[in-house]
Amino acid sequence: MNEKTAARIGSLVVRDAAEADMEAVARIYAQHVERGLATFEEVAPSDEEMRARRLKVLAVGAPYLVAEIDGEIVGYCYAAPYHARPAYRHTLEDSVYVAPGLSGRGVGGALLAELVARCEAGP
Description:
This protein is an alpha+beta fold. The protein is built from 3 helices and 5 strands. It has a 5-stranded antiparallel sheet with strand order 1-2-3-4-5, with helices on both faces. β3 (64-69) and β4 (72-81) form a beta hairpin.
């Protein structure tokens, strides 16, 4: 599947994240920062910081995706370089976040599947 193609699962659509999506992405991430343990952040980043993080991912040619149901952003994911050392130059790590209340409904799995497919396709 190429970058322009959206993966559809039922009413769920996984697509490239756009600038306009970042406010919703920041809200989802804030829930994970405030109520979860996996982010290792203590204060939720601003919308502007989340926009800057997206641009950093895109600058290295990695995917940054959102999941959408009926026009509402319900999750997001991205791949980013794992480590700056040369031995890790072909290694990416993934991050997947789903809106509260939607765990176990296939959103995270759909995001991860499309993210892996995009990473396997390169660059």
